[in-house]
Amino acid sequence: METRYTHSPEDIRHYSTEQLRKEFLVEKNFVPGEVILTYTHNDRMIFGGVTPTDKPLTIELSTELGVSYFLERRELGVINIGGSGSIIIEGTEDSMKKQDGYYIGKETGEIQFKSDDPANPAKFYVVSVPAHHKYPNVKISIDKIEPKVTGESSTLNHRSIYQYIHPNVCESCQLQMGYTILSPGSAWNTMPCHTHERRMETYLYFDMKEDTRVFHFMGRPDETKHLVVANEQACISPSWSIHSGVGSSDYTFIWAMCGENITYEDMDNVRMQDLK
User: What reaction is this protein's catalytic activity (predicted)?
Assistant: First the structure.
């Protein structure tokens, strides 16, 4: 597990492209047969990929977190973006096809991740944040989610938002997690953009072609920066930063948030004329 530390807006003012990418872009999240995680000190979120092949994988973090097992004081969200597989939670197995999700509450013990076909492994994107209460574990099937359709084709941001870990779907302490798919011909995932000082966020971009790139915009609204992002790479977005992207072709992304509240619409909108 790699650790990333926090930064103020003043810190990044003079960052080179290389420095900005080193601090805010996670280039490798899915490696066959491995667990790849990043710990950001922004609200102490842990995120990354679990890619089982010929044998199940588990997340074994205890010493690093000062606890006796991974979810002793944390909750976990999971979305599978790869081949079909399953999750075994304390001995009970649930199938997980592509786009299925899971909320796993605080104090849950052993969790194993499996793939049905090692040649086409499941890719479990996982996000974990500190939790103060134990809520029930819930499987979240993509077939049962009614997407929220928003944006317009005229502004190139028509998209469907699938809310997985959200008050409309299941209870959580502070984790929110979802999946956004852009409509054909749309390129912006969010524009006009916004910030939310009360919550940080991570973005995982995927389902992209090899030569496709997303320009992920970050920074203060009046002093923007950008990261050029390839398939299955993730961005860390501090609470003070905008988080908006535009792609050279179609793409999908998973957003995950944690912080002071779980009110999805709690955001500070930025006027187009204020962007610089």
Answer: 5-dehydro-4-deoxy-D-glucuronate = 3-deoxy-D-glycero-2,5-hexodiulosonate
Q: 226 labelled as ligand-binding?
A: no
List the beta bridge partners of residue 237: 201
> What are the angstrom distances between the C-alpha of 263 and each of 25, 64, 133, 232?
26, 30, 18, 27
Does 194 carry a binding-site annotation? yes
CA–CA gap between residue 226 and residue 17 (Å, rounded): 9
Which residues is 101 bridged to in the sheet? 79, 140
To the question of pTM greater than 0.90 for the whole model, the response is yes
Whether 132 has a binding-site annotation, put simply, is no
Closest C-alpha to 45, from 177, 233, 189: 177
Q: 159: which 2 tokens?
A: 């998209």
Least confident of 36-50, 52-66, 164-178, 256-270: 256-270
* Tens digits of residue pLDDT in 127-149: 999 999 999 999 999 988 989 99
For residue range 8-23, what is the model confidence (pLDDT) as tens digits?
A: 999 999 999 999 999 9
Q: Is the pLDDT of residue 160 over 90?
A: yes
Distance of alpha carbon 201 from alpha carbon 221, whole angstroms: 16
Query: Would you state the structure tokens that stand for residue 18, as one six-digit string?
Result: 């290389």
